[in-house]
Amino acid sequence: MKRSCKTCTAIKRKPRRNWANVEVVYVPIYRPFCPRCGSEAFEHIRGEDNGDNSTTERVVCRDCSEPYKIVRELSDSELPDLGNG
Description:
Number of helices: 1
Low-confidence stretches: none
Number of strands: 3
Order of helices and strands: HEEE
Structural class: mainly beta
Mean pLDDT: 81
Strand content: 25-35%
Strand order of the largest sheet: 1-2-3
Oligomer: single chain
Radius of gyration: 22 Å
């Protein structure tokens, strides 16, 4: 026979959010900088295409040697015209 916990039954769960129609807000960052020292000088180690109009770059700060990633997203105006015709 299962016993129900009074504490568990008293907790009401929030309904799940529907993220399908949530507004997307783009925040442009023009010059990437090191999160540790703030330097804008970095060495590019590796980059890869994410398949969703964005790329991820692995970089190392030239001033403090901190490794970090930069994700670059192309806006619609920066996308190449592939000629849909």
